[in-house]
Amino acid sequence: AGPLRGVTQVVAAVGITLCTASYLLKTHQLLLFYPVVINIVMLAVFGGSLWSAMPIVERLARLQEPDLNDAAIRYTRRVTQIWCAFFIVNGSIALLTALYGNMALWTLWNGMVAYLLMGTLMAVEWLVRQRVKRQHNR
């Protein structure tokens, strides 16, 4: 339910399609493209929100702080852009690992490194946000 319902339905449909095609064609290679699809969908959600009245990071921020000032709104837009860049880079590397077909490399990137980078980006953004808030409150 909610505004991301369509996104979850698309991701589920693509996952089911890749699984079905892999089963019918008797090859696991198609499943390697699932992380690529996830990054494309997330890029579409985050990037598309930049053309809406309220980017997705701003929507998330307003769940905790409904009244954001202009500086905070600019900040959330920049964070949305950074996430778009992340999805482009991560999706591109996921695509390269899928095309290369080395399961060890694919698993290393898509099963560990990508998640570590995502967590690092979240942590760094949280630290930067705290600093920005402190500077603004002075």
Please summarize what this structure is:
This protein has helices at residues 5-25, 34-49, 56-64, 70-100, 103-137. With 138 residues, it is mostly helical.
The best one-word shape is elongated
In whole angstroms, the N-to-C terminal distance is 40 Å
Please give the largest β-sheet.
none
Helix content: over 70%
Number of distinct helices = 5
Percent of residues in beta strands?
A: under 5%
Total strand segments: 0
| Rg on CA atoms, Å | 18 Å
Instruction: Give me the secondary-structure category.
Output: mainly alpha
Which regions have little confidence, pLDDT < 50, spanning 5+ residues?
none
Could you give the order of the helices and strands? HHHHH
Mean pLDDT, nearest integer? 91
What does this 3D model show about the protein?
This protein has 138 residues and is mostly helical. It has five helices and no strands. Helix 1 runs antiparallel to helix 2 and helix 3 packs across helix 4. The model has no long low-confidence stretch (mean pLDDT 91).
